[in-house]
Amino acid sequence: MRVGIFDSGVGGLTVLRSIRERFPSLDIVYLGDTARVPYGNRSPDTVIRYSLECAGFLVEKEIDVLVVACNTASSYALDTLSRELFIPVVGVVSPGVKTALSMTSGRVGVIGTSATIRSGSYQKALKRYGVDVFAKACPLFVPLVEEGLVEGDIAERIVELYLKELKDVGVDTLILGCTHYPLLKGVIERFMEGTKVVDSSEAVARELDNLVTDTGEGRTELYFTDRSQNLERLIELILGKAVLPNIVSEGIHKG
Ligand code: DGL
Prior knowledge:
By secondary structure, the protein is an alpha/beta fold.
């Protein structure tokens, strides 16, 4: 079987990594829209249009299931994608919410891009279960990750800048509501001391249990709309060296 995954950039590779660990034989096609990252400060209409274009590219690769490995796209475009496509579509918000609910004692923090937080997707889903929700947009985290600055002084200071208020209100569980953020997990966990940190990528992989069979050749094809400066370094950081030869195309969008 073939699963298609897309994200605005490299962040969705954290989801790919979890899916690959759970389904070693699955064929996976990944598209990172590196020419247009970030999606997190765009309007809903633009996020929906970009998402439809990414999905269209993957559907042409004959995928059986689509994983939207971007919280921003999941927050705005999931309904449209589910309506327009004739294959199952899995987003990242609901698996993250389910995981957090299974861990929390009642005070959940959620961090994400400005667009994800503005959409209220996590807040609405969590409040339905009566937990207290504290949301915070962290717009500098994505450029930090895309620059490969995932450890060290600069990362620590920016993490403190955004997360101090969540630490002060005493959240017991923190959802990383952006697929780039697991790369900052070490710094975030150290700063948040004792708070449970939810990286929804494993929950997303589990969500596929009822949708895919682990059959195929275990191929990983990676497509990017721009071969940006740090691309190979970031792929290596997330997936290791072995997949680098599988970067098969670039520049698929007109703009
Ligand atoms: N990885 C995307 C997400 O999960 C965010 C990056 C962006 O702003 O494009 O929301």
